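One-letter codes give the sequence; backbone shape is given numerically. An example follows:

. . .
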Amino acid sequence: MSGPIPVTVLTGFLGAGKTTLLNALLKQPAMAHTAVLINEFGEIGLDHLLVERLDGDTVLLNAGCLCCTIRGDLLTALDGVWDRMLAGQKVARVVVETTGLADPAPILHTLMADLRLARRFVLDGVVTLVDAATGMATLDAQPEALRQAAVADRIVLSKTDLMPPAQVALLEERLRALNPIAPILPAVAGEIEAARLLDAGPYDTSVKAPDVATWIGAAAPQGHHHHHHHDPNRHDGRIQALCLDFDRPLPWTGLASWLEMLAMTRGAAVLRMKGLLDLQGEDRPVVIHGVQHLFHPPIRLDAWPEGEPRRSRLVFILRELDPDVVRKGLAAFLDAAEAEKALGTA
């Protein structure tokens, strides 16, 4: 063994494009033999199904937010990576993709302070994605987003092609004030050279803003109580996850009409929406993504994820919006679409 395995933490607020970036990176030779650990907020995980693995494994950490669930989840997952390496599987590096609601400080503390981990793994760096379209408002409203930017070794700006250059420049200026050390790198559709993001470490709090070392130091688990009383909405009691699962193929007309209505009327309350869909008349799965008022065009995947049942799954991260409003609204639009279809075939 040549030394500890480098670990890159990939973070960024909801909808910034972490999975898109990860997919693009994993296709590059520099990312060969990468083990990927994915953490999501909510009862149903989707991102691990949307990451296109070329080799190695993808591990979905327990549902909930990695920064406040049992941090043993991360330790157990890394132990599993180490065991696979000892069994002969080549592991060149690890990427930990955090949920968009994660305060990164507890994750970094775990990776830096656990003596047993330190002999096997080294925190190589933190890559933080910032959405150029919503980044300024997110930094205003979400303290987690501020910390994600402040702790970064590399800041990647996504969706710069969607925004006026002057607005992007203002966001860059604010990010430099938060973190004058980290290079700010643009990525369009997740495309960026992996070498520009890797080998940034080992992680060094001394070159960050003074608050960073304080945050990480304060993130040490406080006794046994911390590990077994997790509040999935501890970040903000106004934020809730809604996870919906459908065994029958869905009508796209009803779903699309409802999504348009939701974006127009309550878009600000939809921090994140993502779905893996089984649609009527479609053989292949369809992926949809949305952030507040911006819903991206659907994307067809080549095939259903291996070993996964063919069904639709939708996940929403909502702020100050009753999940029942979303659930009942969607049901009404789907029922109306089915009724219209029945009338058309009668």
